[in-house]
Amino acid sequence: MRLSPLVAACAVSLPLLSGTADANAYPIKDRVLTHNKLYRAGKLKPAACMVKVMNQHFDPPVSKTYGRAVLDCLNAAWAAYAKRARLPFAKARVAFATKEPRRFCGSSWPDRAGGVYCPSERRFMMLVSEVSIDEPWGLHFLSTLTHEYGHHIQQISGIIRADQYHPYRGKSELNEQAHRLELQAECLSGVLFKSMWPALNSSETEWESLVDRTRAGAEYLERTYKTNTHGKGRNLEYWLRRGFQTGNPASCNTWVAPSAKVA
């Protein structure tokens, strides 16, 4: 999930499972999480299809046609990576809404969410603002889409299911596991941005603005609404930058990171 207002927040729609663990079950020891094939295939190659996307003419509402074209490109880029990594692949699908739906993926729409991924449907819903309906070219629109696609990567690689059934000893560990999932999706968003970057014609200033808004948005939500579903602003910034700088999903292994990096 991506969170509003300053960051469009992307949530995974999953039931919260109760559970207990013995003293040796934590930190994370599930190899699907810590040693996934996702981390073994090197960098994601530049998404050449984005050149074609950026040269297309999109009919109104532009956000929908542009968003679907970007998603088609991400599906193509990730299919090639999944083949190298010997991971299963299935295309992600996207839907758009101009106001919060009452329900999605069998649950109520989360508060202040700008996007939600549904693992069972391999589909995500994005809210689009009045600004982005006909002019979605900013990096903020793409950051929501790529974060949700990060959750799709987690789904097809088995990470979401492994996380869903991983035991925990209390609320604190449950929250930390949720942060690891969300921060990994944020890091994968950075990896996807790196792959698309040569075609985007965006400036370093625009990138830094996105990173600043991501951090500030999380800080605002924690300060104003006392919510910290994705991790602290400094950690969202850290993992987003890490994915972009490396372009390699291996750098997004939040499951072996120290607790301070996923707080």
SSE map:
Blueprint: E1 2-3, E2 10-12, H1 31-34, H2 49-54, H3 62-85, E3 93-97, E4 103-104, E5 107-108, E6 113-118, E7 123-127, H4 130-134, H5 139-156, H6 159-164, H7 171-200, H8 204-225, H9 233-246
Parallel strand pairs: 2-6, 3-7
Antiparallel strand pairs: 1-6, 4-5, 6-7
Helix pairs in contact: 3-5, 5-7, 7-9, 8-9
Please describe what this structure looks like.
- With 263 residues, this protein is α/β, with parallel strands linked by helices.
- Helix content is 49%, strand content 10%.
- It is built from nine helices and seven strands.
- Helix 3 packs parallel to helix 5 (139-156) and helix 8 (204-225) runs antiparallel to helix 9.
- Mean pLDDT is 90; it is low at 4-9 and 14-25.
Task: Describe the structure concisely.
With 263 residues, this protein is of the alpha/beta class. The chain has helices spanning 31-34, 49-54, 62-85, 130-134, 139-156, 159-164, 171-200, 204-225, 233-246, and strands at residues 2-3, 10-12, 93-97, 103-104, 107-108, 113-118, 123-127.
